[in-house]
Amino acid sequence: MGSNETPAEMVVRHVLEGEKHIADQAALIERLSLMGLPTEDAQDLLEYFCQLQAQHEEHLRRISDECEIGVRDKQGNLLPHQQSPAAMRLAAIAVTSGQFRRRY
Fold first, then answer.
1. Mean of per-residue pLDDT scores for the chain
2. CA distance readout (Å), 11 to 25, 33, 34, 79, 90
């Protein structure tokens, strides 16, 4: 956690980083497959990343509930229930990231 990073911001960062790790691993598996190389270990690692991501997303849901956030728009971005300062900060992070969509 960075010195200026709140616990909620850390959880959002973990979700975003997890999505990137999953996408990168899926791309690696595709490249290995196209080259005719074994993918079993890479697929096992991808499954582990997906399990970790589920934990990160569950943590985000718990943090979101604590900050009165939980509604998502059609793109999957978090929207505030009420305009508390914590809710506004998390909503701003979600909107500017443009992420929070499951791609795996």
1. 77
2. 21, 33, 35, 16, 10
